[in-house]
Amino acid sequence: MGATAVADFFQFFRSYVSNPGQVSAIAPSGQSLARLMTQEIVPGAGPVIELGPGMGVFTKALLQRGVPEQDLLLVEYGSDFMRLLQQRFPRAKVLWMDARQLSQYEPFMAPAAATVSGLPLLTMSPRKVIAILTGAFRHMREDGAFYQFTYGPRCPVPRPILDRLGLKASLVGRTALNVPPASAYRIRRRPQLSKHALRHENW
Fold first, then answer.
1. Are 58 and 124 in contact (CB under 8 A)?
2. Over the stretch 72-111, which tens digit does the pLDDT of each residue have?
3. What are the C-alpha distances in Å from 54 to residues 29, 127, 177, 199?
4. What rounded mean pLDDT belongs to the chain?
5. What ranges do the domains of the chain cover?
6. Are 140 and 114 in contact (CB under 8 A)?
7. Domain 31-199: which topology?
8. How far does the chain reach from its first CA to its final CA, in angstroms?
């Protein structure tokens, strides 16, 4: 582990200790999970939103996939992480805000092709999960996909919430190389639900 990785680990761990409800793990995600979370994203297909990028592990994987840095919208609630992201990815748009507020804002850029989430959805209330998904899909194209990882045995978004929002989840894959082992899921709109319907839901 290099000096930067060691420093990132301790900063991430400090953030977890100070606010475990907003940080999804005690250590940054590994490269194997980052590749799994980003393997379906096609460079040039459109902007990519990242929720809870933290230290930027998934962000780096997106850049390695060929996604232009200026096509990234990074939404981070932790102030320490936000400053680090601004330094590491100066051409990306970095927003200091709670991801559940996304639906309250007009689009920040062209409709996104995908959203990559590092948020700890399993620790959040159903109301907050609904707000996050509604906001993300509001800013994505009709065929956009929301990618979410979990350490649990099933999709971290419960079926009743998926049904309520007209969404469907599919397993992308699992990796035993991450610590702890993790799975990645792809969440899309069901064909019969329009972006207009999601936009006008009131919670």
1. no
2. 999 999 888 999 999 999 999 999 999 999 988 877 788 9
3. 10, 23, 20, 27
4. 86
5. 31-199
6. yes
7. Rossmann fold (3.40.50)
8. 45
